[in-house]
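S2.1 Query sequence (Bacterial bifunctional deaminase-reductase C-terminal domain-containing protein)
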Amino acid sequence: MRRLCPVTDRTPTADLAPREWGPQELADAYGYPEPAAGGSWLRANMVATLDGAAQHDGRSQPISSAADMRVFGTLRALSDVVVVGAETVRREGYRPARAREAFAARRAAAGQGPAPAIAVVSASLDLDFSAPLFTAPLTPTLVLTGAGAPADRTAAAREAGAEVVVAGDGAGVDPHRLVRELADRGLRRQLSEGGPRLLGMLVAAGVLDELCLTVSPTMTAGGAQRIAGGPEIPVPRRFELVSLLEEDGFLFSRYRRGGAGPE
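Output structure tokens follow.
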């Protein structure tokens, strides 16, 4: 990876010079910790501008970069499941995760399939079940919803080939049940790609173990959302810096929840 520099004090000084990182070296840098038996590790991957915007014109692509997309692809390649909110699926035109040859041997050694599953979080199930995300995935797409979800939309999801997972007693999803239901299916390396409402829900519930945040060297002004939305939590949650990388002015940070360890 061109001009990507580790800058934490955990890295030997000799490694601080800008240099090219290959996909395996990048995968090593972002490897998941090994959870205990039956446990899981939930990380989120988000991008934000210098003035805190998570989107421009409703999408994250305008504030991203080629380097950001390489990190994005690496994080997906390491995960068992990608968790994403329904609004992000609609806005970003989500498609199934694809198999990446560069990571095929690593995934096979970890007992993973060729590509992670996509898990869509939706209370209303207002989704296009004719889209390739549901009709042509390498790994069947999951839909996480509540027990009060509309019966006709639940039936439509199943008819399209999605696995419907009830992870809440009401209309919506309980974050703790979300994590547990996925782990119970062997999907322990969990990656959330937002959007802001979903990330805010995960943060408020205290289930987010790690945040991978790209800081884009851009400014948008306006009223764009931050990376996490929803109600304010009573006490700010503290996260600890694990690593910081840089390329072309973009910063790639990893933070872990204070005191977090594999569960």
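The chain has one domain: 37-257. The two ends are 31 Å apart (CA to CA).
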